[in-house]
Amino acid sequence: MRKRLxxxxxxxxxxxxxxxxxxxxxxxxxxxxVPEDFAFSLKFGAMALNGIDTYNGTLTKDLIEAGTEAISYxxxxxxxxxxxxxxxxxxxxxxxxxxxxxxxxKPPLAFVFAYTCDGVTKEINCFDNPDEDEDEVTTRFLAFAxxxxxxxxGTAEWKNxxxxxxxxx
Length: 169
Known about the structure:
This protein is of the alpha+beta class. It has helices spanning 2-16, 77-89, 136-154, 156-159, and strands at 39-46, 50-53, 58-62, 68-72, 99-100, 109-117, 120-127. The chain has a seven-stranded mixed beta sheet with strand order 4-3-2-1-6-7-5, with helices on one face. Helix 1 (2-16) packs across helix 3.
């Protein structure tokens, strides 16, 4: 049930992002204008060792027994705009807590999202614990973060990085 709700939220965020009312400026094609300073990093997975970092232009993959590998990566402008639309539609800036779902699972599946937007820099930490009930804010955040993870793991750059060896179990 929880996975189905997350999938519905991801679809809703991505599909409805253009339909949401916002004080952001709207481009002639209906897309929101991405603020000049919009940047983010998302660390994710067991121990939050995987990640995308638009501040430094990198993708990092946890190879478990082989450490981590980081490569240069520039997020395409059209993908950045889609992520910004999802960011606004999920109302990420309204999240006031810096830690959501503080219960750790084994292995700990974590999301650490840091962002800068319109002069504000913030970090949100969330642990994906299937045994803990999620409130609406956590559900919204996890749907947003999982959408970014899905994008990252679907890139050719990610797929061309070495496969992880071993496990955390």
